[in-house]
UniProtKB/TrEMBL annotation:
NCBIfam families: Xnuc_lig_assoc. InterPro entries: MBL, RibonucZ/Hydroxyglut_hydro, Xnuc_lig_assoc. It comes from Thioclava dalianensis. GO terms for molecular function: RNA endonuclease activity. This is Beta-lactamase.
Length: 333
């Protein structure tokens, strides 16, 4: 009997034929990492294989010694009895799907992925496979994300209509912050954008990778300077909004850029006055159309809402199974 190609274990997906894990939730001897968000990329593994950008991002976040050994993915690799290939996922800078092939079967572990073009990373690449492992972060029919350009237009309209109030935008440090900045620049906003110190290193890295973010200035000014800001956009990680840092600003408009802002109750709970529905994940229509485009023999579902997608698969005569992996959460900051 052929050995299974990938199996779920408490620490994450494991490949017996290659003796490695994909995005493990605890330290392992050998880890293949899809992208740099902390619920997928953790420190402490014996060896890590990832794209160069993901390895750089992990070093920025965890320090240069985040792993015993590291290897940049630079083309198809033989690992044990498997062939491994990385393909762009369209989620954040350096993000990749990992295709594992052995014994005539190919499984694609997509990690987190998005189908809408963004200047901050390479677009998603559909990969033919026998088994497609999909996230299910927004896997409910209610989640249909609007055009992000429309959401940015809302932000700019608010800045224009309330010029005396600085606009503080919550955005995760890796991917979302840079996407919001790039969208603002694409919309013609060329004024300085102020960023919280927690965003500085990752914004600097994106700029070094050739992603134009324009005039960025530190939002670490004192209370007098902060209260003097007018018609300003300030971007910070969501955690900063629960700190004394916010109190430096005079009557700010609190905003948050996330796919979850489609749920108005979430916006109210966070005290968000201006919710911006901007996501780095597929929504329901994008998820189901991706499955139809790839047309795998089997669909494995993880990282989110499995029930609705399982039901959709059954209605469309598709074989599907929930993986029930633990350790994956809402996007980390």
């Amino acid at each position: 009997m052929a050995q299974p190609l990938l199996i779920p274990r408490p620490e994450g997906l494991y490949c017996p034929l290659g003796d490695f894990h994909i995005d493990p939730s605890r330290p392992v001897a050998r880890a293949l990492i899809t992208h740099g968000h902390a619920d997928h990329a953790r420190a402490g593994h014996g060896a890590v294989l990832a794209t160069r950008q993901t390895l750089d991002i992990m070093a920025i976040r965890y320090g240069a010694e985040f792993t015993g050994q590291r290897q940049v993915y630079e083309g198809p690799l033989r690992i044990g009895q498997t062939e491994v290939r990385f393909h762009p996922a369209g989620h954040v800078l350096g993000s990749a799907q990992i295709a594992v092939t052995a014994q005539g079967t190919r499984i694609v572990a997509s990690g987190d992925y998005a189908r809408r073009a963004t200047p901050s990373c390479a677009p998603f690449e559909p990969v033919a496979c026998d088994i497609f492992i999909t996230e299910a972060t927004f896997a409910l029919p209610v989640f249909r994300h609007p055009d992000p350009r429309v959401e940015i237009a809302k932000l700019l309209a608010s800045v224009k209509s309330e010029p005396e109030r600085p606009h503080l935008v919550g955005a995760y440090a890796l991917g979302k912050a840079q996407r919001v900045i790039a969208l603002l620049r694409a919309a013609g906003y060329d004024a300085p954008i102020y960023i919280h110190g927690a965003l500085q290193a990752l914004c600097d890295y994106h700029i070094a990778q050739g992603i134009a973010l324009g005039d960025l200035r530190p939002a670490t000014m004192d209370k007098t300077e902060a209260r003097a800001l007018r018609e300003a956009i300030v971007i910070a990680p969501p955690s900063a909004f629960g700190s004394a840092w916010v109190q430096r600003f005079s009557d700010p408009v609190i905003s948050f850029a996330s796919g979850w802002m489609q749920i108005r109750a979430r916006a109210r709970q966070r005290g968000v006055e201006l919710p911006l529905v901007i996501s780095d994940h597929v929504d329901w229509d994008e998820l189901t159309s991706t499955v139809e485009e790839i047309d795998p023999a089997e669909l494995w579902i993880t990282h989110g809402r499995e029930e609705a997608l399982m039901r959709w698969a059954a209605l469309h005569q598709r074989v599907a199974r929930p993986l029930g992996l633990v350790g994956y959460e809402e996007e980390p900051e």
